[in-house]
Each structure stands twice: as C-alpha cells, then as structure tokens.
Amino acid sequence: MHENFAVALNANARRVSDDVRRKIERLVSPRDIFYSHSVDESRDIARELVSRKYPVVFTGGGDGTFVRFVNDYVAAGPNQVPGVGVLHLGTGNAVASIVSSGNFECDLRSYLHSGTRDTQALQLVEAEGARFPFGGLGWDAEILNDYNRIKHTIGRHPLFKPVVQNVGGYFAALFGRTLPRRVSNLVSGQPIEVRVTNLGSEAHVLHHGEPVKAYGPGEVLYEGPSNITLFGTLPYYGHGFTVLPYSMARPGFFQLRVVTMSLLKAVTRLRSLWSGSYHGADSLDWHVSHVRLEFSRPVDFQYAGDAQGLRQTLELRVSPVKVSLLRFI
Asked: Is 94 left (phi over 0), alpha (psi -120 to 50) or beta?
C-alpha cells in the first residue's frame, strides 16, 4: 500500500464538486489533501508540498491545474518535480488523456492498493519563465478568449450553464464570435504574418511526421502568413483534439505547427483536423528545440488552455524540467 502521496485540487474547477471531494476524502487522509482557491494559495501549497517531500502528487482540476502545480513547485526551489498523477477532473483533460483511466476514483484506488511503476515521461515547453505541454498563438487563443467571455455572460444563466461549460461552449465561441470576426478581418484585408527563427543547434522540417530538411542555428524556418501557430510536447488540446500528432516523436524537441488555412476551411475539415490525420500545404510542421516567433502585429496567446493576453514576439525552448506521469491506462 502506498500512502505517502498528496492530492492537490483546484477548488474552483467545475468538476471538483462536493461529491468528488467526499469521495477523495474517503480514500486519502485530509492531511494530504490540498485545495487551492487562488494563485497565491496554489503557491503556498507548492511550498508546503516541497517541505513535506512527497514522492508523488496527484493534481485535479485540468491542464491549467497541472501546469500551475509544476511551475509553482519549481518556483519553490527544486529542479526535480515529484511523480505526478493527473486526475481526470478538468474540462479538456489533455494531459490526463494520455495517462488516466478516465475515472479519478479508480486511479486513486489503484495507486493506494498496488502503486504503479508504469510512468510516462513528459517534456515541457518553456516561454517567459513558464513551463507547459502545449500552447498557441492565433485563432485557438481567440476561441479560448471568446469562450471565456461567453462563459462569464450567458454561461452564468442556469439554463445555459451545463451546455456552455464543456466542449459545446467552445463551438458556441467559434461560430458565435471568432468565426464572424475572422471573416470580417479577411474582408478588410488584415492578414497576420510570422517569422520563425531557429535558435537551437538544429531543427527539422517534417513531411507526414518524418524529417526531410535540417536547419542550423540562426536560420529562418518560415516567414509568411499564419492563422494559428501551435507548439507543444503533447499531441492533444483536450477533448481528443489531436493538433500536434508528432509532438512526442523525438526526445529533446517539440513540435511547431504553422497553419495558414482559413478558419472557414478548418470548419469544413474539422473531422480530419480533430483526429490529427489532416495533411496539406496549409499546415506546416517542424521539430525544434529553441525558436523565436515574431508576428506582424500582436496576436492572442494561450498555453494549457489558459489565455495569456497578446504577444508580438515570443521565444520558445524545450524546458530542462521533465515530469514523470503515473500511467493508469
């Protein structure tokens, strides 16, 4: 039996309900359960977890909760993050999808009764001092911002709340706000361009996931239009949306994808885009370790499903911090 572990939960997460709390508290000692209600509380909890030297910490609340834990833990001092179990208690659950059974009780019981030596190493991308498994600039972040606006307006109404606070809310944001705005920008002729410069020792352009051309340090990988620029070490964005299918193929690198297709075309190709099977000249891929992105004007930025405002320049690199995820599938 394994008892020396902690559970760190985002108390504000929709799926961390009173019923979920009661079920977890029946399995785990209250001394080892931590609820965060704010950014400051999350930092305090990380410092407490560091001081207690837990070898394993389970997080619950989604990709943002996982990323917040990792960044707060590293900020508290250690360069090495403990083993992490990611409970399926978020909205998108991109990280949980590769390691969780989908049932938080089953995962906790499995670890309690037998432990697990089955782990999945996860590299992270680093930008502006933050570490995360996926992010993007462009209309993915626009949709996220529009989703947040919908959630804080009509999503407060009891009738619409169950529909808005899941994948349906993202489609409402896409068709109700982001797509009309993008069509308007297309008509007014306001394209966004990006210049991608390799700052690492090497980078490779990919064709169907296979490297076909190498680039040295300082070389420009791409310069041209971009409706969305994606990057990460994880294939998914959540809800099974496979946007970076080659992200885990090469240790020490992350996948960079520049998409030039219009949002209108993306809607018509949604099935193949969702499964990660789409191939076309309007979707360009690289394996990189360190790049600089420079946009013609500020664009929306997000990582791990959390909006980060606007950026015109962003530097990305593979983080030296790696996470060992407990696997229950």
From this structure: alpha
DSSP character string of 50-94: HHHT-SEEEEES-HHHHHHHHHHHHHTS-SSPPEEEEES-SSS-T
Fold observed for domain 130-320: Tumour Suppressor Smad4 (2.60.200)
The pTM (predicted TM-score) of the whole model is 0.86
- Ranges in the chain annotated CATH 3.40.50.10330: 5-117
28 in Cβ contact with 56 (< 8 Å): no
Name the residue with tokens 């709390």. Answer: 21
Task: Specify the CATH architecture of the domain 5-117.
Answer: 3-Layer(aba) Sandwich (3.40)
Tell me how far apart the terminal alpha carbons of the chain are, to the nearest angstrom: 20
**Closest C-alpha to 261, from 227, 229, 222:** 227
Query: Tens digits of per-residue pLDDT, 24-34?
Result: 999 999 999 99
Rounded to the nearest angstrom, the gap between the alpha carbon of residue 180 and the centroid of all alpha carbons in its chain is 26
119 φ, ψ (degrees, to nearest 5): -130, 160
pLDDT digits 0-9 by tens, 145-176: 777 766 655 545 454 455 455 556 656 766 66
